[in-house]
TrEMBL record:
Protein's name according to its UniProt entry: Ligase-associated DNA damage response DEXH box helicase
Domain named Helicase ATP-binding: residues: 28-198
GO molecular function per UniProt: ATP binding; ATP hydrolysis activity; DNA binding; helicase activity; ligase activity
Organism in which the protein naturally occurs: Sphingobium psychrophilum
Protein family: Belongs to the Lhr helicase family. Lhr-Core subfamily.
NCBIfam families (UniProt xref): DEXH_lig_assoc
Length: 807
């Protein structure tokens, strides 16, 4: 590849009044040397252009009619957006360079043509790349591939989609050993860890780190509510009128929410406060493709004043007219906040404007901690882990669809993918035999016999697909993202608005109403796959979606703990937050960094234990289950528990005098194992790994299984394996998922370890100020009536008065 920019590209820069930035030229130099490269640069620094400059330069110098560069994005929308932005300079320079996308939304005839006559640059996703590799002509298609560009690498490198992509890159490298790997990101904490992930065979020295120029410091503020910072809640909806005032004062605003349910709630709150009738819209992953594309086009055209969105728009989509980002509720991590801030202005030399709306007093501390972390350029740590075996099973089956393989050769190739570098021959053999027959407990069923062995002319053992129908089955069902059982939301004319999960739909009856896609909808009828609705003006409820809530990052949690232990910092806080902490210091104690504060006190005939661990809602939910089980065995008569991101409260009929015994380390060996095995956690995890590994089909030709059918199938197999083959590959994979993803067991273990050495137990006569935010949650889980809400509000005010009394 050329070391200098071609004259036509230099002229294009000059015509725009630009100059190539240092990191863009560094990327060009790395390409000229044939080095792999990781570019870490702030949003607006021209990362995407930096990634593609070597490709454009090489295509100008050495024209070809073959596929030259593969760009892999975590989001379909990002691939479409990059294509639009990449075509502009190509057309302005008059280059004969073709750019196309290939995602699940690409028409089948175009997909077929792309394999025969590919573009120069193909923009795709990890799943679509994996499917391309399942065709016999994959070796021909990728034989001249020069570069793979992985955009927003931080978004999926540590997840199962990252496992699949790394395995796919290993296959591409085997097809063309001269292939270059490039990764782009704005928010990477451990550069060396990502270099190792990107490198073939994990050889970190082959990946050159390229650091972008620092941009203007973002201008981020915390919105202080009119009145007092709330005691509880995490939506920030109390600030709807203030948020609308910010929207009215600006050109275009992105309003980020942490969950889909909150996005629907905040949209309704903003719409009610939208006295000026400004055009605002909503965007999240459960809305139909058509609805999302319509909103994205309206944003690109500057037709919206505000867009309420979730993580569906966290990444890379470039709308230059966005001049402010508002984060509703605490951001949960400095990297996430920085990523979202970067959606404003999208220019390196202009400060991005952002506002954080904390939902409650603890969230105020968290928001302040996040702003400090952004200012200190501190990023959240990423937890790299061993590659998942269910993903490996899917990948191996995909390669078998492309043609027969030798196990020894494929094992060597798989080990060159960093997440699988430590894979043993025994574990790989288990994966092969799982695909061959499902495991010995399922070996009697022909539908699980996807691979077979035979011998070639040289006496080598080859693995091949046992019947052509399994090839079609794989291509229909491959993918890492396992949707929860869901029903399509449709109008009577068939127009699809999106999907809601079966668990929420099961609570509805004809005549009930709910908010979705920014509208109030009334249920007309329901069948196994569709929820038919019509628009209504009736009072409506907010849908709920399953899945883990985002936990505050460990680095942010550490900063919040430091705030509590450093009164000299409190002058930065609003008066009511400062008063809250001062009263806690007077009445009880504030935990020191690394310390676990436990308070016990009576309240209205019950005895409470409150644990301030800051490990997140998921870990606290799990711990609450375990502690109440242990309290039961100790005769403490537990009544329940309640948790937020910062604390856990358990309560019962008898006082807890020895909390240390409740938190002993064996709780993770005894109660935890029993609880997970008896709960639905393991079955849910098994469902996901069974689908990913290809044991259960989601789709037949022309027909898609309902969520209930998939769940029924996986539950039957789960019960068989639990009884007859408890060491089955997928049960082990399900256990790993249940421990890590669904219960935050790593953070739970840290909490238990901390309890053993640093527990500070304070016995109080009544509720403490720090306990108020979590105790207010009691009774709120299933409240729907206004009268009940009013009663809870009165109860909360009494609780606050009791806690904040100095005597």
């Amino acid at each position: 590849m050329p070391l200098a920019l071609p004259a036509i590209i230099e002229s294009w820069f000059a015509s725009r009044g630009w100059r190539p930035r240092r990191h863009q030229m560094d990327m060009l130099a790395a390409a000229a040397r044939g080095d792999h490269a990781l570019l870490v640069a702030p949003t607006g620094a021209g990362k995407t252009l930096a990634g593609f400059l070597p490709t454009l330069s090489d295509l100008i110098a050495h024209p070809t009619d073959r596929l030259h560069t593969l760009y892999v994005s975590p989001l379909k929308a990002l691939a479409v957006d990059v294509r639009r932005n990449l075509l502009t300079p190509i057309e302005e320079m008059g280059l004969a360079v073709s750019v196309e996308t290939r995602t699940g939304d690409t028409p089948s005839d175009r997909k077929a043509r792309q394999r025969v006559r590919p573009p120069h640059i193909l923009l795709t996703t990890p799943e679509s790349l994996s499917l391309l590799l399942s065709y016999p002509d994959a070796a021909l298609l990728f034989s001249d591939l020069r570069t793979v560009i992985v955009d927003e690498v931080h978004a999926f490198a540590t997840q199962k989609r990252g496992d699949l992509l790394n395995l796919s890159m290993a296959r591409l490298q085997a097809i063309n050993p001269a292939l270059r790997r490039v990764a782009l990101s704005a928010t990477v904490a451990d550069i060396d860890a990502y270099r190792a992930w990107l490198a073939p065979d994990g050889d970190i020295d082959t990946v050159i780190p390229v650091l972008g120029e620092a941009g203007a410091e973002p201008n981020v503020a915390i919105l202080i509510p009119e009145g007092r910072v709330p005691w509880s809640g995490h939506s920030g909806k109390y600030a709807a009128k203030q948020v609308m005032a910010e929207i009215e004062a600006r050109q275009t605003t992105l309003v980020f929410c942490n969950t889909r349910g909150l996005a629907e709630l905040i949209f309704q709150e903003l719409w009610s406060a939208n006295d000026a009738n400004l055009p605002i819209a909503i965007h999240h992953g459960s809305l139909s493709i058509e609805a999302r594309r319509k909103v994205e086009s309206a944003m690109a055209a500057g037709k919206l004043r505000a867009l309420v969105a979730t993580a569906s728009l966290d990444l890379g989509v470039d709308w230059g007219n966005v001049d402010c980002v508002i984060q509703m509720g605490a951001p949960k991590g400095s990297s996430r906040l920085l990523q979202r801030i970067g959606r404003a202005n999208h220019r390196l030399d202009q400060a991005s404007e952002a506002i954080v709306i904390p939902g409650n007093r603890f969230e105020y501390l968290e928001a302040r901690a996040a702003l400090d972390a952004v200012e200190a350029r501190e990023r959240d740590a990423d937890d790299f882990r061993v590659g998942s075996l269910d993903v490996l099973a899917q990948h191996v089956m995909g390669l078998a669809c492309a043609g027969p393989f030798r196990a020894e050769e494929l094992l060597e190739e798989v080990r060159s993918a960093t997440p699988y570098s430590g894979l043993t021959a025994e574990a790989f053999d288990h994966v092969l035999h799982f695909i061959e027959g499902g495991g010995y407990a399922l070996r009697a069923y022909d539908r699980f016999k996807r691979l077979t062995q035979d011998v070639d002319g040289q006496g080598n053992v080859l693995w091949r697909v046992s019947h052509p129908r399994f090839i079609q089955q794989h291509r229909l069902n491959a993918g890492i993202i396992v949707d929860q059982p869901a029903l399509a939301v449709r109008f009577a004319n068939g127009r699809k608005l999106g999907t809601v999960e079966e668990g929420f739909a099961a609570q509805l009856r004809p005549g009930d109403s709910f908010f979705f896609s920014g509208m109030a909808l009334e249920v007309v009828r329901m069948d196994t796959s569709d929820l038919t609705v019509r628009a209504t003006s009736k009072q409506a409820r907010i849908p709920s979606w399953g899945g883990s809530r985002m936990a505050m990052s460990t680095r942010l949690a550490d900063r919040v703990r430091h705030f509590l232990a450093e009164p000299q910092e409190w002058h930065r806080f609003p008066p009511d937050v400062r008063e809250w902490l001062e009263m806690q210091k007077l009445r009880s104690a504030l935990p020191q960094p690394g310390q676990l504060l436990i308070e016990t006190f009576p309240h209205e005939g019950r005895h409470y234990l409150v644990c301030y661990s800051f490990e997140g809602w998921n870990a606290h939910q799990s711990l609450g289950m375990l502690l109440t089980r242990r309290m039961e065995s100790q005769g403490l008569m537990p009544l329940g528990f309640v948790a937020n991101d910062y604390a856990l409260a358990v309560y019962g009929l008898k006082p807890i005098t020895d909390p240390q015994s409740l938190f002993s380390a064996d709780i993770l060996d005894h109660e935890f194992v029993d609880w997970v095995e008896q709960s639905s956690l393991l079955k849910r995890a098994f469902r996901d790994v069974a689908v990913i590994a290809g044991l259960i089909e989601r789709q037949h030709p022309g027909k898609r299984k309902t969520g209930r059918q998939v769940t029924f199938s996986t539950d039957l197999i789960y019960d068989v394996l639990r009884k007859y083959q408890p060491d089955h590959l997928l049960l082990k994979a399900a256990w790993a998922d249940a421990r890590a993803r669904m219960t935050d067991v790593g953070r739970l273990g840290d909490l238990i370890d901390r309890a053993a050495t640093t527990m500070l137990h304070v016995t109080l006569e009544r509720v403490s100020p720090l306990a108020v935010p979590v105790l207010i949650l009691i009774g709120r889980e299933h409240v729907a009536q206004t009268a009940a809400e009013d009663a809870l509000l009165i109860e909360a005010e009494a609780l606050v008065a009791e806690a904040m009394r100095a005597d």
